[in-house]
Amino acid sequence: xxxxxxxxxxxxxxxxxxxxxxxxxxxxxxxxxxxxxxxxxxxxxxxxxxxxxxxxxxxxxxxxxxxxxxxxxxxxxxxxxxxxxxxxxxxxxxxxxxxxxxxxxxxxxxxxxxxxxxxxxxxxxxxxxxxxxxxxxxxxxxxxxxxxxxxxxxxxxxxxxxxxxxxxxxxxxxxxxxxxxxxxxxxxxxxxxxxxxxxxxxxxxxxxxxxxxxxxxxxxxxxxxxxxxxxxxxxxxxxxxxxxxxxxxxxxxxxxxxxxxxxxxxxxxxxxxxxxxxxxxxxxxxxxxxxxxxxxxxxxxxxxxxxxxxxxxxxxxxxxxxxxxxxxxxxxxxxxxxxxxxxxxxxxxxxxx
Length: 353
Hints:
Layout: H1 2-9, E1 14-18, E2 24-27, H2 29-35, H3 39-42, H4 55-67, E3 71-79, E4 85-96, E5 102-110, H5 111-158, H6 162-186, E6 194-197, H7 199-213, E7 219-223, E8 231-234, H8 235-252, E9 260-273, E10 276-288, H9 316-326, E11 330-336, E12 339-347
Parallel strand pairs: 7-9
Antiparallel strand pairs: 1-2, 1-5, 3-4, 4-5, 6-8, 9-10, 10-12, 11-12
Helix pairs in contact: 5-6, 7-8, 8-9
């Protein structure tokens, strides 16, 4: 039985085994990740408790059990207990044991995830091209900028009038501001300094920073999985990525006193990042109740210089994505009025250290 479960856990398709009473008898790792639950919680439970609003789901299962014939459906909508809606292709196969008892084998393939993988690969290629162009432009700007600043410093020493020196100070100050902007455009440019730590240490550190920035006005809710192991990552860079995302949520809030941010951590098995299948990843959701990202900006939300705020630079989320990508992970965004969800996945395997 353990050998069979090991085989099931290495299958990237979600597998749910149900007995003749539609009670769960097995749920593989991919199924647990897809349904955002655990095998321990589901074994012995009725299939109707796996999802919310389960009438159509149950009717299909009961029909297959009654007809004793396989069934396949594409793009089936399932509402998870977390409130997230997923779309899956479903194959239900009736199985007979040696005693003639019927059970069901349910295969769930996430349509959303396959579409996201394809979309993410195309988006990453487009963004890498955009970043290469911007980095080249940034380097060209940085060289003459140093000359302007140096000339302003020399001029300040020669000016006899202190009032005129104020103009050179403005030049130097603005040159420094542009230099900082260019450095941010260039993004993280050093090697990762990985050390094995808990992801919750990062989340708690940033939570304290955002709490202070909001003058204790923002409400930050924690929903951590205490079983998550430590894994190697660059603490300073990951703090910057999480801070950029949470600060974006705080700045988007029309009233900081009503800003609510949920921090959630989970582990997921058999998860694909890019074209690589990872046995175990850490998933972090950062969800806020703000006005949402305008639909026209959502596809380009990680593109440098794209922002919905008049005073924004459009670099925070781009830098956050670069940092997550450097760690071998992926950063995703979903948004609608009243809920914006940023989710990043980081591989936890030792060989990624």
